[in-house]
Amino acid sequence: MKYLKHLFYAFLCSTLLFVGCKKEESYDELTSLAADKIQQAVKLTENISCSDLKECRVDTLYYTYVPVHPSFEQAYNKLITEAAALRERAQKVYKGPIVYDTSVSPNYLPPHFGIRCIAGKLKVASARDLELSEINQRLADLLPKLQTFFDDIPCNDPSKWHIAPFRKDCEFISILYTDKENFAEFGNMAEQYNHLDNAKRTLDKSLNCSTTNDKPAKGVICESNKPKVTY
């Protein structure tokens, strides 16, 4: 009996010693492991055959867009889940100073224009992946929608209206906007327009426009319940 008691205490001490010596989790190590999981997930989305285009979906993955195919979606989701768990553990062990980031979010992503077959591989297209003809058509479709988006809102207080500058080739255009329930829709269209316009200026070598607006807008007035730009 005495022997068993000593054996029990020896086992208990060794267990406590093992637990006490267990390596403490490191923030840097955990974030590195999470990043590795994300890289593995991204690799799964590379080299997808163009014949699989219709079966793929677009996923937003932290810092990029990726095409996800059903053939690897389960493995992809597992890696993303594991990465999220590692990030959560990393935050719990973080002991550094609190950093207040006032810059633009590093997770910001520009608008995408669907999954395309580019250079023989599937890719989630940015504005710069489009042909100039498609860019011009998209710009032509978006501009009137932006210009008329707030036509149903009466102007009673000019201070509630604001001016958003846009470019149409070499022309500067002022579009008025105010608060509206579906304002996000306007914001999304505006973001698409600006990215498409920037892509056009990169592709269209015939454009040689001044970057200075010779007639900038000064403000907004209400005239017959309609907002009007003053110059």
Automatic annotation (TrEMBL):
- Tell me which PROSITE patterns the record gives: PROKAR_LIPOPROTEIN (PS51257)
Q: What is this protein called?
A: Lipoprotein
Q: Which organism is it from?
A: Sphingobacterium zeae
